[in-house]
Design a protein that fits this description.
By secondary structure, the chain is an alpha/beta fold. 48% of the residues lie in helices and 8% in strands.
């Protein structure tokens, strides 16, 4: 879900063509959820092989990721590790909502078929097998994966800060809180529906006259995956409060509030965003796809069309032209 701060951001529309030559750190779990939610049959049933195993995520990885690589984009998938204990309540709530959505989906397929797809999308979940299969097919495709010790978006943001990637790809905004200089949304979404959007941290800071630390405090007031936020405070109100008081400490002291429900753990949450646990030892290396292993895994094991997979691999192999790096001003 991430933090709800979209109203104060200024995304700038871009295209895959102008991103050519860029290394993009992809929030793997976020992207897998997209594939599992969207790539489904009309009644909401996910794609499955003859053994009943879900393959929607694999379809997204081979076909939609191929689209990116064909444009010269170099993706690296960053996987979540162990979540913070502060996230336990959020994870439990998500699990309960998915279970309820699945129940409504089963009911809607019989009584309200026009609503079935909506509930099916909300029921999507990632398990160990889906993660392992995703890592396997990405390795066979020659795409590097990085395992984060905790939050994938924190790891991806660190990689961009370090200069090993230039953008974080995610539908959520948390990577900005983790310090990513720039992020992109809608990278793997079907192009007919929407265009990719780039959001820069420095643009946000300059527009609103706040620092990244103040931006993190703003998010805490609204609510993050690690705290519920103050009830009734939206992002615009939080922005006004932070611009006036400059920190949660001053907001509390100057307003003479000893304890505010929803942000009691604000120091811990702030530390998660400003000093996240990251993996500093990783290797980014893009290899030539192993055609035989990709076909064996997708076609023989999961019943994919050999013709379609062959065409996807051919498109990747044909993309051998190196594209010179571009400055960020040229992306937009």
């Amino acid at each position: 879900m991430g933090v709800n701060i979209g109203e104060i951001l200024e995304p700038k529309e871009t295209s895959l063509e102008v991103l050519s030559g860029k290394i993009v750190a992809v929030d793997a779990y976020n992207t897998l959820y997209q594939f599992l939610s969207i790539i489904r049959q009309p009644d909401g049933t996910p794609l499955k092989d003859s053994s009943g195993r879900t393959t929607s995520h694999l379809s997204g990885l081979i076909y939609r990721t191929t689209n990116l690589m064909e444009k010269g984009i170099k993706p690296v998938f960053v996987f979540d590790g162990k979540p913070s204990e502060l996230k336990a309540k959020v994870i439990k709530g998500r699990s309960e909502r998915r279970a309820e959505a699945k129940r409504k989906w089963e009911e809607a397929k019989v009584l309200f078929p026009e609503e079935a797809f909506k509930y099916a999308q909300a029921s999507a979940r990632i398990d160990k097998t889906i993660v392992e299969d995703a890592k396997t097919v990405l390795a066979y495709m020659g795409i590097p994966c990085v395992q984060a010790p905790s939050e994938g978006e924190a790891q991806a943001a660190y990689m961009v800060q370090k200069g090993d990637a230039e953008l974080v790809s995610s539908q959520d905004y948390d990577s900005l809180l983790f310090g990513a200089p720039a992020m992109i949304r809608n990278l793997s979404v079907a192009r007919k529906k929407t265009s990719p959007e780039v959001i820069e941290l420095k643009t946000l800071e300059k527009k609103h006259g706040i620092t990244r630390v103040e931006f993190v405090d703003l998010a805490i007031l609204v609510g993050t995956d690690f705290n519920p936020g103050i009830k009734g405070i939206g992002v615009k109100t939080a922005l006004k409060l932070i611009k006036k008081h400059r920190s949660i400490e001053k907001l509390i002291s100057e307003a003479e509030i000893e304890k505010v429900e929803g942000i009691e753990n604000y120091k811990l949450v702030r530390d998660i965003f400003l000093h996240p646990d990251v993996n500093e030892s990783y290797e980014l290396k893009w290899e030539t796809p192993d055609e035989e292993k990709v076909k064996e895994f997708l076609c023989e094991k999961h019943d994919f069309s050999e013709e379609r997979v062959s065409k996807a691999l051919e498109r990747i192999l044909m993309q051998r032209i190196k594209v010179p790096q571009r400055k960020i001003e040229q992306w937009l």
